[in-house]
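re: ur question from the group chat, yeah i did fold both. here u go
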Amino acid sequence: MKPPPEHDRQLISKCLSGDRGAWETLVRRFSNLVYQTVRSTFVAKQAPFGRQDLEDLHNTVFLGLFDQGCTKLKLYQGRNGCTLASWIRIVTVRTVLNHLRKKGVDSPLWETRKTPVEELSWLRAEDQGPLALMESAEQEELVHEGMESLAPRDRLFMKLHIDQGLPVEEVAEALRISVQNAYVVKHRAVEKLKTFLVSRGK
């Protein structure tokens, strides 16, 4: 697993230690990014919005990062080369999607451009536009919902392989199964996830 860039790691470390100056630095550094992502997601979703919506969701994103001892900020790991900026964009998209769902706007736009489950890499978001990010965030939520329906060992396998980014060989070692058996487990889990997504009309 590739570690996050050093400047990201240092900033997060300071935020987690309660350094108010670091919190202010993080907000200043990513404020425009969050505003732009909120606006772009509304536009991509074809949902009406006003200045107050932008302000409220901008604040919601940062409050979510800092609430409860920065619990959400601790989730950033920088795996697969994902920068802090990319991760905050994804957090912002999810925040807007949750807001829209509560408002009754829930019509995923990625239905006609499905990504094979086995090819998902939703944290590699540097070059993704707002629509692609929205699609990835929505599909990720469904995939994780589907993972909860898997058998315990299959679910553990996929969490290690997908969530933690471990290669199949390392997961096989961790679960004390052969590499060949690990690929069988992966194939079975992926097929079950595909079936789940189809059942949800995605």
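okk and heres the other one u asked abt
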Amino acid sequence: MSDYFSTTCYCDYDPPSIYSQRIIKRARKQSECCECGVKININDSYEYTFGVWEGYANSFKTCLRCVELREWAKISVPCFCWYHGDMLSDVWEMVNEVRHDVPGFFFEYGRRAIKIKRAGGHI
């Protein structure tokens, strides 16, 4: 069975030293999802995250399709570690490791990945 289901969880990165709450916003100007690259159009909802990691401030805009995929991964696998900007490959790596242990897991991933792909995202 995969390490993702272990009782102890270790992520090999430092959490942000300062982390603001994630906020769902409505776009006032066009931008791009930091995960899949899909355009976030004016009036589209997206997740805005701001944080300070190792003294460097950064902000991220994530489309709601990528947020859905990330939240599914976090709920499905207790020890899912991911980075902003690399979440899609982190999910894919986790799915490939877990899919043989959990029936239907790859199908559930695929349903969410297709939504991102159809929107024009790079998955």
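fwiw on the second one: The two ends are 26 Å apart (CA to CA). Residues 3-118 form one domain. idk if thats what u expected
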